[in-house]
Records
---
Amino acid sequence: MGFHEFLPTLGMAPGTITSVGTYNPYTVVYDPVNHLMWTGSYSGSSWAIIAYNCNTFTQVYLIPLAFDAAGGICYDSIQQRVWIGSSGSSKAAGINTSNGTIAYTVSTSYTDGMAFDATNNVIWVGSPSASAMYRIAGASGAVTYISLPGYTTAGIEGTIYCPTTNQVYFGANYQSLYKMNAATNVVSSFRALQPSGSQLVTDMYYDALNNVIWYSSYGGNLITINPSTGAILATYNPTNSSYPEGFAQDASGNLWFGNMTNYVLKISSTTGALLASYKIGAYSSYGAFDPINNRYWAACRLIPLKVIQA
């Protein structure tokens, strides 16, 4: 791609919401090297991973898959690959972002969350059906199965990696957050939650700017946690924040996410103040931010991608 393609596009006023693509997107991740937005389709009749040009919204790649691409997605910044996991089969795939080819297809299990760990050059895959974590070597695609006995009540919800602690964090059993040492694969309890429906883990996000972990709950709470101690730093509950998912940060550090009320919200990552809300007409479970054009992309399952101009 030429340099000119990385220049921001013009003509979208702040607050403008645009539909992109015709497939049913479930997952989405930003590729900063090629300035593409990659999304995994959910529909059983159109299993694929698709890349869109962030400036023009045109489709650049469509790679058919033999499994749904709805379980998780992450960007491997070392090998420059996008990894996608399935919510309905025991597969994951690594896609070369330079040419849209499949580098590896590996066996895992039902995926609920993926995270790239640049410190160890590893892709982490959380699996509720197997009560396990899978460790995929970024360089070779080799898979290591890590059993997590005792985490079977709800399986694993959300998977993130924190480089300041070299730990993988996940939620399980409806009432606790756990961490796993990325070097030794040893799991320990991280934060006990109240065993009620409003506390169920819906998503997790590592905020590198503020060095905090964001944990969201079914009841709409957004909680910031110290990644070293597990201490709760703050709790927020913005309007229309039921079942928050799809966290991404803009260049100013503001946090964007979707929810079950069919809104995308933007809040301050330091105060939790609600800065903006956008009704997109569907529940979005994954989101990614294009920092060049200052746009949030929401994956909404049964309708096209929604792109919001900040």
Note: The chain has a mean pLDDT of 87.
---
Amino acid sequence: MFISRHYADTPQQAYGGGASAEALLLKEIRDEHRKQTELLTLIASSMGNREAGPLAVGDHRKIIANRCLKCHAEDVADNEGKGFAMSVGKEVRGFSRPEADEIGKQVGAGKMPPGGGLSESEKKVLQSIPVGRKKP
């Protein structure tokens, strides 16, 4: 018997099963988080902020992949990026504190990427890169 998820006491009652019920519940939580993030972005946009939206952990990886790896990918860094590789293979790598600080300094000074082109929110993200392993 299926019980409406709004009236169920457990995930098993709501979704009718063991591990798959937990997976469905996690999916529902993630979907709700995504919806809330989109709503916050929409609200901030409507308030006149062109670069609206909360910045999530890991956004620096997206920015680096889209804006920096043209010159700083592992396979072209020696020729194009003055030897500073920001990837391992096709994945954006983790950075040490001195590397993250230098990236923030170069971006903040407008030296990277050449010609600029980063939004203020992208600059803020790159000026506060978390350090450590590949996945934050």
Note: Residues 1-54 form one domain.
